[in-house]
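Practice problem: Phosphoenolpyruvate carboxykinase (ATP)
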Amino acid sequence: MQNKIEIFNNQVIINYNLAYPKSREVLLKSHTFTKFVQYFIEYQETDNANMYAYLTKNGELNSKEASCDFCHFLRLLSIFTCEELKDEYYLSNKDATLSVIEEMYRNWRSLQRFGYMKSDNSTDFGINTLVAFDSASNDLILRTYRLFEEKLMGRPNLVYRQVQAGTNACFSVHTLDKVWADEYAALQDIPMIDTVMLRTPMILHPKSSKRTGMFTEIDTQPMTYFKKGESNWFCYPCKVGTLLCFVYFNSKYMSSALSMANLFELATKEESAQKPDLVVIFGNDDGNDATNFYYDEANDIWVGCISDNPRIEYFGYLKKMCLTLHNLAQMKKGWLPIHGAFVNIYLKDGTKKGIMLMGDSGAGKSESIEALKATAGDMIREVEVVFDDMGTIHLEDGVPYGQGTEIGAFIRLDDLDPGTPYRDMDRSIFMAPENPNSRMIQPAAPYRVVVHNHKIDLFAYANNYTNEFGLKKLTVQEVKDTCKLGKRMALGTTQEVGISTTYFANPFGPMQKQELCEPIIDTMFQALEDNGVFVGEIYTHLGFDKSNRKGLNIAAQQLLEFIQKKD
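Answer key — structure tokens:
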């Protein structure tokens, strides 16, 4: 990205290397500020006709001329008093000009705002450099707004709010010296993210809040139709479980891509120089409106491609493509992907149990864990999250172990206890909180915990559609058949509503490659039986009435009783 500033798709991206405001004078004289003022004036033409007429002097000026004129006035106002500028047009009606300033500030803060800078041109670059730059910019914008506000009001404010006036997030980038294979040469010059700072809580308002369609395999390498178009691109290199994944994204989806910092461990510069296991192209301008994946056998890379389309603003497209590629790669190694939740429960009396619950979206996996926490109360010393959506079971010396994929959790707010989202809101990202299926992404576990081998004591299928209560032990064959059927009462979190079935409750890899997954299921379930793992079903009742927590509470009580049993 060579431009100083880009404003599009309800977001603004600032290149700090080209447009960093070191002082108020520099800020007000900058092309970056003038461009934003012009954007604001043009927005008023349809949003507020009276304000547009005021700023353009009743049509005497076009938007570019009006932005230059208003910026000139602000530069004067930053130095002189209103009395000294009494002949200025914009002081003939102070209330109108104050309304312009307040609306401009509100409009600026309504955008998703991002800043970035290069890290490979500075020998002493570090996170403190990035934080210092961004924080100083935030402070400058806030102080400048207050200066104009107080001069026009003719008095100081009595209450000051230290809001996020600068960016929502910032990051640093570097470029690769060489790409790992000739087929991917078009990706070489795309900047790689190496540091991210999020200003949380971060509230995003994507246009879409639901995922539709399926991820389908194709026999054409997506690199053959990769199109940058007129957009700029960046890469978020991350670790999905133990695998290295490079997510190349169209900058119009910056908010979704940077939200990954709360979900997938960011790879180091050294790791980013290696060949990835997975590659995701997000927002490809190919006109296909497709969500496809391809296996590059020659380079042993799974490649996912998601077409540019307004619907993919929903974060689930990005997250689930990464997990689908991960699951496909792990199944080739003989690992079994699990769509579910896995936690280690540590009681204060020293008891520790590994609890793995499996089920498709809306089945009640995370909700059961939350209900368990509430039921156990002070008895629990720690709940260690291994995964909250997707993980794996693999064997070592005949023993089944669980591992996770994500350092965070992408949680549907509708199904949580009302107080739950607020406990970690200072570290969280909220997505479309005003809409149904609103979500939050919050940190859940350190990466070292996620990729550690964890012993499984209980494996249960989360059943949200059967009118039974509690936790029920079944034979391994019964549980295996139930898991393969993947039945649930769909709650509309995707395109499905009502009773549905999905192979192994996992449309992200196992469903697409059933012939590969089938023998792995047999092997892992036999290992669960051989190692004395409790297998069964837990009945959540969420498919009947989300507001009625009776089923969850009964299940949580019986789950607690299992955990309390001494081995």
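Discussion: The mean pLDDT is 93. Students who identified this feature from the tokens alone can consider the problem solved.
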